[in-house]
């Protein structure tokens, strides 16, 4: 047995890990060592190079020389040191657009509608030390190539090197929408936490930040013309996102190839609006809360009231001016009808107009969505708006499937483009125990914990016809923050959220065993860059690919 | 409904939270506001005051003026500000020993055997501004009183105050052993992380650090005379605990009223010893590992070999010199017999001596435990040593029940003192998903996640007779670190581990609903002191005690 075992260790210990994440569509690698010259330069060919691409190239250099990540093998970088002596040296990486393409900022390319984003790139790293090249049809593609390039290198004893030269990569994403959702309403996250998260997202080519910014518990968004909402609804004056903060976050994201989709969840999840406008909210703080809402506190917009509809339409209009994204989520989840049955003003509105609650909801939705569409925004809604309620939606409306992956088929059958966000695969907060008080052994409604392996094994087109499959825009992990805060943001998100990033970039059906060593590399590299990604295994396993597999 | 709801909010929003944790045995509080004088002093009466008590008093002052924690109510400290004007001012806290008691260092009192630790104290905080007092029979009691005193105060607008004066507390722990176990072998934790954890432990009066320092994956302890184990078995030369590190940690703990119990787990969980002494280890790296060990890598001490027994006895002796604690854990969990059935040297030893494997294990245990006992140490073992194996143990041996709380009764029936450490109540790592690779939907063996509420609801004497109940020394939370590392240490431990700290100090049967607001206070205060305790609920709930209860 011992001999067998030792043989296994040697094999795994010295097999170089090709640690790119997400895995490129097509890749060829060699086994030559190539060193990075201390004078290494990244140049961009052509005129009118946008500033955010130049900044990205300079950040890439900082990562190359700053990561100081030793390769994850037994003996770490010392194993590779013997090959440094006769290794060729790389002094230049050149980026250039394909013939006919013209420069636009990474930001503007990232903020296009998902279907219009061009993220494809071609990367060549010769083994002989001659210049490496990244070519693409867009600056966004060049940016993705830079991200890939930075993952090829390790450090040992002040030598920056790769053991996999030459490298040729032809790459493009399987799906145009690869997101991450963060809830900043249950608990507040400073701008610095959001920026750090955006950096980590860009490292694994996530291109969509879905910002669930407000909810029933707090309203931290300062909206010009509607500032009383944050003044009275934020947890404190220091827990507010000002228009400057939003500009800062949106531009920081754009420079990193990420579009910011804001969500103003309506008409449910709006109890906090009562702090500024009690007249607009039905059943605020009604108890028992469980009868009137899925979460405390109860309170929903009186959408049957024309004044409320007009108010929200104007609020949406004001918010569209803050976010350049083509996408705007209006929410629409978990509407509780009991709340309206005890709300006299709503009952009076319905009686006066002779409408049912559903008809009033339809009118509210059409009015508020119209306010978005005149501003060139595409509405995004949670699944209930097409599966539970019978509201009129433009056929461009995108649908977030969250309750269960079993509902994907029904949404597709209605012909809407959809985004995978199912709680049974992509909720980062599941498995941490129920958060409502007075609940001794209660665990979370969406137990168990969603492991990276589980998310990674998701099939985006399960049960869909070829036609329905075309409706899949992509998918994302989500963090609802009833039990999360800046204190555990990194550990609960990373590296798990990288699993959906690869699933929706590289496509489904990849092998979990071969992914694990690459994911270790992602986590270790994130730590070197200041993101607290957790350990997925004992370090002993991280250094021995496969040795801790169930079947090893 | 609205009126009812608003009434609820007002009631909860302005009900002062008595936020002490763990809850004292006897406490009387008033509702007067008392401010802390900027010149506030802590003095210790008597001669020969130990330096670590003086240091503790000075740390307490730093917390009082540095915490800057606003009270957790709607409106935070501003709610209390109106009462500042006519509030009395406290300028002094005096500590003194009861008549007849004499000063010894907090450290030496903390390092006594659990049953000899005197942690009782009497705290009086008058409302009229006259000096507050803490009296006790030991410096350790005075130290616990200081910890309680520091939890009474909040800050608003540079005013340090309490809204609960006068306060009278008579307190002592229900159980003498209140621990936290950390595994530093699966993944390594720098000394600074351990010190920060020791600080947080002391804030909730945990008095025992159970240090599972080595295991099959790595050997980070540098032991004088046995340095090859760490040289060859640590993850790297920078991931080692030197004798200086150990002295540093032990004294840091002692000054904070914490004893450090080291665990050198034998004869299982020892594969890494093969890196330095292959001749001492059976089936190192045997595959499939699942046949030969509960975790990769396989590998266990050849305890049937007299040379190995002698080596471990000498190793234990060397380790006893590094740790002043009366307790020393020798492990004894998860011994795999298949490993020995394929190990020719072990089979040869057994044949040569005519002993069974169990008889050899008994001899090994007696020899190695004798090495501890001559040094005045009490052996501590995992439950298998009394429930699975038939080894001879001194009746002073303490037993850690880990497999299941259902095994507590069986251990008590054998007459051993026991420490509650059951995986079904106190394992902090459960519910995070299985960590072995190639395991798509696998969740952790001890799912689900152990919520603080679940741990808190544990009954330490369930099914025990009055006599057996006397054998319960206390209990602890435990963190096995297959999927933990410095990146998630604070969030996975805090504030959850505070639930067992209160259970074993205040005693069982406390109310979860009234505990939650106090636990929020613990978490918020920890954050102010630099420990990343997570949020247990949305901040909206943290500011409204009871409003987010399931039944509210």
Automatic annotation (TrEMBL), chains A, B:
<keyword id="KW-0378">Hydrolase</keyword>
<dbReference type="Pfam" id="PF14845">
    <property type="entry name" value="Glycohydro_20b2"/>
</dbReference>
<comment type="similarity">
    <text>Belongs to the glycosyl hydrolase 20 family.</text>
</comment>
<dbReference type="GO" id="GO:0005975">
    <property type="term" value="P:carbohydrate metabolic process"/>
</dbReference>
<dbReference type="InterPro" id="IPR017853">
    <property type="entry name" value="GH"/>
</dbReference>
<dbReference type="GO" id="GO:0004563">
    <property type="term" value="F:beta-N-acetylhexosaminidase activity"/>
</dbReference>
<keyword id="KW-0732">Signal</keyword>
<feature type="signal peptide">
    <location>
        <begin position="1"/>
        <end position="19"/>
    </location>
</feature>
<dbReference type="InterPro" id="IPR015883">
    <property type="entry name" value="Glyco_hydro_20_cat"/>
</dbReference>
<feature type="domain" description="Beta-hexosaminidase eukaryotic type N-terminal">
    <location>
        <begin position="20"/>
        <end position="152"/>
    </location>
</feature>
<dbReference type="GO" id="GO:0016020">
    <property type="term" value="C:membrane"/>
</dbReference>
<dbReference type="InterPro" id="IPR029018">
    <property type="entry name" value="Hex-like_dom2"/>
</dbReference>
<dbReference type="GO" id="GO:0030203">
    <property type="term" value="P:glycosaminoglycan metabolic process"/>
</dbReference>
<protein>
    <recommendedName>
        <fullName>Beta-hexosaminidase</fullName>
        <ecNumber>3.2.1.52</ecNumber>
    </recommendedName>
</protein>
<dbReference type="InterPro" id="IPR025705">
    <property type="entry name" value="Beta_hexosaminidase_sua/sub"/>
</dbReference>
<keyword id="KW-0326">Glycosidase</keyword>
<dbReference type="Pfam" id="PF00728">
    <property type="entry name" value="Glyco_hydro_20"/>
</dbReference>
<feature type="domain" description="Glycoside hydrolase family 20 catalytic">
    <location>
        <begin position="175"/>
        <end position="507"/>
    </location>
</feature>
<keyword id="KW-0325">Glycoprotein</keyword>
<dbReference type="InterPro" id="IPR029019">
    <property type="entry name" value="HEX_eukaryotic_N"/>
</dbReference>
<feature type="active site" description="Proton donor">
    <location>
        <position position="334"/>
    </location>
</feature>
């Amino acid at each position: 047995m011992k001999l067998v075992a030792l043989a296994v260790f040697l094999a795994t210990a010295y097999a170089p890990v090709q640690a790119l994440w997400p895995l490129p569509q097509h890749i060829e690698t060699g086994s030559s060592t190539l060193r990075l010259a201390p004078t290494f330069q990244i140049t961009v060919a052509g005129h009118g190079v946008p500033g955010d691409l130049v900044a990205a190239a300079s950040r890439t250099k900082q990562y190359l020389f700053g990561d100081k990540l030793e390769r994850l093998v037994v003996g770490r970088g010392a194993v590779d040191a013997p090959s440094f002596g006769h290794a060729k040296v790389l002094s230049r990486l050149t980026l250039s657009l394909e013939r006919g393409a013209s420069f636009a900022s990474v930001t503007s390319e990232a903020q296009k509608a998902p279907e219009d984003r061009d993220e494809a790139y071609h990367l060549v790293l010769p083994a002989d030390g001659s210049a490496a090249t990244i070519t693409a049809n867009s600056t966004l593609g060049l940016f993705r190539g830079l991200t890939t390039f930075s993952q090829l290198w390790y450090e040992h004893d002040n030598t920056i090197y790769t053991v996999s030269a030459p490298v040729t990569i032809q790459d493009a994403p399987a799906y145009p929408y690869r997101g991450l959702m963060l809830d900043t309403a249950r608990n507040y996250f400073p701008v610095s936490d959001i920026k750090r998260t955006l950096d980590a997202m860009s490292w694994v080519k996530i291109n969509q930040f879905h910002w669930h910014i407000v909810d029933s518990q707090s309203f931290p968004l300062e909206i010009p013309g509607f500032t009383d909402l944050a003044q009275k609804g934020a947890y404190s004056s220091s827990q507010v996102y000002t228009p400057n903060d939003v500009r800062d976050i949106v531009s920081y994201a754009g420079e990193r190839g990420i579009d910011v989709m804001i969500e103003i969840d309506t008409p449910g999840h709006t109890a906090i609006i009562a702090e500024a406008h009690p007249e607009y909210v039905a059943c605020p703080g009604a108890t028992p809360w469980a009868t009137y809402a899925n979460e405390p506190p109860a309170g929903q917009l009186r959408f049957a009231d024309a004044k409320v509809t007009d108010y929200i339409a104007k609020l949406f209009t004001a918010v569209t001016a803050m976010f350049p994204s083509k996408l705007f989520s209006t929410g629409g989840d978990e509407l509780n009808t009991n709340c309206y049955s005890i709300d006299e003003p709503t009952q009076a509105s319905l009686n006066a107009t002779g409408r049912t609650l559903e008809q009033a909801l339809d009118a509210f939705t059409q009015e508020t969505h119209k306010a978005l569409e005149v501003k060139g925004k595409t509405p995004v809604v949670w699944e209930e708006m097409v599966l539970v309620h019978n509201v009129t939606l433009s056929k461009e409306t995108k649908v977030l499937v969250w309750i269960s992956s079993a509902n994907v088929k029904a949404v597709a059958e209605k012909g809407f483009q959809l985004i995978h966000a199912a709680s049974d695969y992509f909720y980062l907060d599941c498995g941490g125990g129920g958060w409502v008080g007075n609940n001794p052994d209660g665990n979370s409604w969406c137990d168990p914990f969603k492991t990276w392996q589980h998310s990674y094994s998701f099939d985006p087109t399960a049960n869909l016809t070829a036609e329905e499959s075309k409706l899949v825009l992509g998918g994302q992990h989500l963090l609802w923050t009833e039990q999360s805060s800046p204190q555990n943001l990194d550990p609960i998100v990373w590296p798990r959220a990288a699993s959906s990033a690869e699933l929706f970039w590289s496509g489904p059906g990849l092998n979990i065993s071969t992914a694990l060593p690459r994911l270790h590399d992602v986590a270790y590299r994130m730590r070197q860059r200041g993101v607290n990604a957790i350990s997925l295994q004992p370090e002993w396993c991280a250094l021995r690919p496969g040795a801790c597999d169930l079947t090893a």
